[in-house]
Amino acid sequence: MSAGRPPVGIDELLERVRQAYDRIEPREAHSAHRAGEALLVDIRYAALRDRDGLIPGALVVERNELEWRLDPRGSHRVPEATGHDLRVVVICNEGYASSLAAASLHRLGLHRATDLVGGFQAWRAAGLPVTPPPVPDAPA
Fold first, then answer.
1. How many alpha carbons lie under 13 Å from residue 128 in its C-beta half-sphere?
2. Whole-number mean pLDDT of the chain?
3. What is the DSSP letter of 80?
4. Are residues 33 and 27 in contact, defined by beta-carbon separation less than 8 angstroms?
5. Is the pLDDT of residue 20 over 80?
6. Is 98 helix (H, G, I), strand (E, B) or coil?
7. For residue 21, what are the contacts with CB-CB under 8 A and spacing of at least 6?
8. Which of 83, 88, 82, 80 is nearest to 105 (CA)?
9. How much of the chain is in helix, strand and coil states, percent to nearest 5?
10. Strand, helix or coil at 20?
11. Which end of the chain is less enclosed by CB atoms within 10 A, N or C?
12. Are 74 and 105 spatial neighbours (Cβ–Cβ below 8 Å)?
């Protein structure tokens, strides 16, 4: 940050980063994924995935590994990180952390990165497919 500029709060930061790209609604993300036009990336932490389930076909990448795994030039990239034109839809629980993550992907050159409005909870509320979490084994 340059000297003399006041710090920004998280609400202002979210507003700024979200102005840099078009966010995507759950049904549009589902259609794009089914058509092979978007890679869904679930950055929720394990406890939330275990509690709420998964979006079928979504790539699970912990938030702290996201840039390493999706950088097309990176030595730790996933096979799906095929190029900077990849349309990535980042999904967190409610659509806040994913906005910051998508902005970070933009800085890596993934210019089509976006995030899901409302996150996983909006996806589920829209009645879109969710693989339920595994049922714990009953005590013997």
1. 22
2. 94
3. T
4. no
5. yes
6. helix
7. 102, 103, 106, 113, 114
8. 88
9. 35, 10, 50
10. coil
11. C
12. no
